[in-house]
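Why do we care about 3D structure at all? Because function follows from shape, and shape follows, mostly, from sequence. That is the central idea of this module. The next example makes it concrete: a single protein chain, its amino acid sequence, and then its structure expressed as tokens.
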Amino acid sequence: AEKEQQEAIEHIDEVQNEIDRLNEQASEEILKVEQKYNKLHQPFFQKRSELIAKIPNFWVTTFVNHPQVSALLGEEDEEALHYLTRVEVTEFEDIKSGYRIDFYFDENPYFENKILSKEFHLNESGDPSSKSTEIKWKSGKDLTKRSSQTQNKASRKRQHEEPESFFTWFTDHSDAGADELGEVIKDDIWPNPLQYYLVPDMDDEEGEGEEDDDDDEEEEGLEDIDEEGDEDEGEEDEDDDEGEEGEVKRFG
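And the structure:
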């Protein structure tokens, strides 16, 4: 019996090796498809960026409406991001070796840079690393040094933690292989930023509809009270005692 089990284990191992070989082959073919479509996407991304440039505050609105990104934003971060005019995510041509995120800014009171970038690299042995633009802060405007003095809404809810500034992300290279913000921007926001930009409009429309319904209900309620009031006034003319009962009925 033990010999049969051992033979079965060896056969399972052989089959597993075949499965692994197929998985590797599939990964190689999927990568080729991704590389092909990465190139095909580029003109559409370019066209989209040109259209987004016509909408003021598009990117700061998009970031504020994204639950994970907004949790990293203090009030001054939001102010600085109002000068953000364009975001570009570029996957390296072979896809597997990494990507770069570029943030384009107008002239602003916070820093001298026109472009802030962060790159993520995966070397041949699979070790991740990242590097980014050094932010040239204007005098007294370094938001990464003010983070201990400011708190955003999300952090106050999280047991009064002191949040780091959004801009500390450009100096944090401690865990390049699991950079949550970079991955959120690349995989969630960049494919379709419009869905996050439009979030508040949808909420406002729903809110307005609810308010209208409430107003209608209030008006109907007032009409009912007026009708009762008219009836009660008629009863008062006939009998003062009944009128008093009518008043109790109306407000009781």
